[in-house]
Amino acid sequence: MPADLDPAVREKLRRRLAFYEDIGLGEFYRDRAPSMSSRVWPQDPDATPGTEETPLPKPAPKSAPALAAAPSAKSPSPPRHAPPAPSLFEASEKISGETLPIVRADLGECTRCKLHTTRHKIVFGDGSAAAKLVFVGEGPGADEDAQGLPFVGRAGKLLTQMIEAMGLKREQVYICNVVKCRPPGNRPPEKDEVDACSPFLFRQLDVIRPQVIVCLGATAFQTLLQTNRSISHYRGDWLDYRGYKMMATYHPAYLLRNPAAKSEVWKDLQKVMAELGLEVKKKQAK
Ligand code: SF4
């Protein structure tokens, strides 16, 4: 690193390089070809529907195992494999009329489950409504509860590093959780809480219509696939959630406790990158 580098930039760079080393990238480079982000990813989280450049195609029905169908969202489900539309976001607008602000307004100052009694802020979700990639976690922690934003604590910083390692910016994806209020003591959400809150997650996904959903941890995986099976049997495999391609992988909080698992998660994310047409970095550490 240059000796005159700003200390804050130097520290950020050091942490980034340590992260790459953790996930098995001993060396890497980016070529100077036009980046994917300038070609297919929304640059502005508030971008007007229809103004983005050529969208990536919707997922074709592939051989991913469909474990179960999740409950329907309130609005009618649009066809999942319709002919290419000018904009995925625009298409969902036309079919259902639903938007993220409408879903948020319906959630309101929610008291539908007991988690409302201990929360400080509802954590609805954050990112681009036109995102091709959505990360779904379990529920807010203390930092998220205080700020009203998902994944802003230590695990969130790690998730941001993972997103950036994929060649994306956090604002280009959408991040949300199964439950929107913090379970006390960071316990897993209970069934009645998931049942009360998950319809809003399903509606968020139906508005965004992402190309890929990444479930971070067992709660997201089990909620979307309506199963109580262990995530360990399905982690890293392509799954099907109502026609969306879905990948289940470890939660960043788990990675903080088990850094050795980062390389497994990176393999999963590389599959996601390939699916999305992002450049997969091939250089591996010895
Ligand atoms: Fe409402 Fe969801 Fe919060 Fe429960 S967790 S109070 S359902 S927003």
Account of the 3D structure:
With 286 residues, the protein is an alpha/beta fold. It contains 10 helices and 6 strands; from the N terminus they run ααααββααβαβαββαα. It has helices spanning 7-22, 36-40, 88-96, 100-107, 142-147, 154-165, 191-208, 218-225, 252-257, 262-276, and strands spanning 126-127, 133-137, 174-177, 212-216, 238-241, 244-249. The protein has a 6-stranded mixed beta sheet with strand order 1-3-2-4-6-5, sandwiched between helices. The chain is globular and about 55 Å long. The two termini are 23 Å apart. Mean pLDDT is 79; it is low at 27-94. Iron/sulfur cluster binds next to helix 7. Iron/sulfur cluster is lined by residues 107, 110-113, 115-116, 122, 179-181, 193, 196-197.
Layout of helices and strands, plus pairs?
Blueprint: H1 7-22, H2 36-40, H3 88-96, H4 100-107, E1 126-127, E2 133-137, H5 142-147, H6 154-165, E3 174-177, H7 191-208, E4 212-216, H8 218-225, E5 238-241, E6 244-249, H9 252-257, H10 262-276
Parallel strand pairs: 2-3, 2-4, 4-6
Antiparallel strand pairs: 1-3, 5-6
Helix pairs in contact: 4-7
